[in-house]
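hey m, so remember when u said the tokens were messed up on ur end? i reran from scratch. heres the input so u can diff it against urs
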Amino acid sequence: MDEFFDRHLTKSAFRLEALDHYEVGSDGNDFARFKAGEAEPDWERKNKWLNVLRAEKEAGILEHRVRVLRTPLNDYIRFECEWSYVPNTQAGEEIHILNLTERELPREVVDHDFWLIDDQYPLRMHYSEAGEFIGAEPADELELYRRARDAALAVSEPFKQWWDRHPEEWRVNRTA
């Protein structure tokens, strides 16, 4: 996938995330640390990604995503919100939340994770039932993925706005 992004990414990368849990090596051991009550992610690891986001924003590349979820959040999605989405938005990524507890999933939104690179190159993501990344493949249905992106963005709300409305989901308020 890195090679695909290097070849095609020049102006935008959109991601639809819909799984309840991901088992990905790029998280390091942060999820376990989060569940153990540690205060912060491994900043040495995390800052590498934040620097990429900052550099892309400075170069005029839009990184954005819609996270499909339901409240109450499970531990993994709470971890994503607190240790990924908060710093990612501060670094320039535009993250939106589509909370299926508050809104219906538009029929145009596909039932799987995907990337849409430069509004031209859809990549369908494949995961095991445990949330392990299996692979990605270029998809032929460009208009399908454009409609899915547009529909998800139309009914979602910016992460910060959504997160500020849901302090009951913050870890500090769930363990108090």
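this time it looks ok to me. The radius of gyration is 16 Å. if urs says something different then somethings off w ur setup not the seq
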